[in-house]
Design goal:
By secondary structure, this protein is mainly α. The chain contains 5 helices and no strands. It holds the Pfam family V-SNARE_C.
Length: 203
């Protein structure tokens, strides 16, 4: 229920005005922190379940933790995009508020080429900031997922040893963990390639 409430608040972010968006962000962060606190208690409670229910309880807690980590990453992405928009608006207002003095009649400035070059640099700079921010959040999410998967894998192995699962099931679990590792590495490689292409063509 708390996860669904956070998801509904996330939908309000895009429609919130400048005055209320900070309040919505703070409310979402507070609810996410509360969910993480509850998940810690749930982990302790799930370890006290009877052996035949313990595995299912731990898997459900891990799935909830995975969902909340995704919500945390989405909130960070939104905050980063909002910061970039506000920074651009401040720069635009500063440029419009700036006063200029007239030059002497014999003084000329090649402003068109300089302005175009400056706009290209700013566009490339903004693109790099967005890519770096998105890449950082993606890598953080991947690291969080890896920690969750490693913890889940360890817990499943403990439960499997206790319940005496077959070797076939154990091999399937290890194969899935191995595949997830390659998926993570592939995602990191694609992110790095996109950042390289943006730098190559925008600058």
């Amino acid at each position: 229920r708390q996860v669904h409430e956070v998801q509904s608040y996330m939908g309000r972010l895009e429609t919130s005005d400048k005055e209320s968006v900070h309040l919505v962000e703070n409310e979402i962060q507070a609810r996410i922190d509360n969910i993480f606190s509850n998940l810690e208690r749930l982990e302790i409670l799930s370890s006290k379940e009877p052996p035949n229910k313990r595995q299912n309880a731990k898997l459900r807690v891990d799935q909830l933790k995975y969902d909340v980590q995704h919500l945390q990453t989405a909130l960070r992405n939104f905050q980063h995009r909002r910061y970039l928009r506000e920074q651009q608006e401040r720069q635009r207002e500063e440029l419009l508020a700036r006063t200029f003095t007239t030059n002497d009649s014999d003084t000329t400035i090649p402003i068109d080429e300089t302005l175009q070059f400056n706009e290209s640099l700013q566009s490339a700079h903004r693109g790099m900031d967005e890519l770096i921010g998105s890449g950082t959040n993606i890598l953080q999410g991947l690291r969080d997922q890896r920690v969750t998967l490693k913890g889940t894998h360890k817990k499943i192995l403990d439960v499997a040893n206790m319940l005496g699962l077959s070797n076939t099931v154990m091999r399937l679990i290890e194969k899935r963990a191995f595949q997830d590792k390659f998926l993570m590495l592939g995602g990191m490689a694609v992110t790095c390639l996109i950042m390289f292409l943006v730098v190559q063509y925008l600058t």
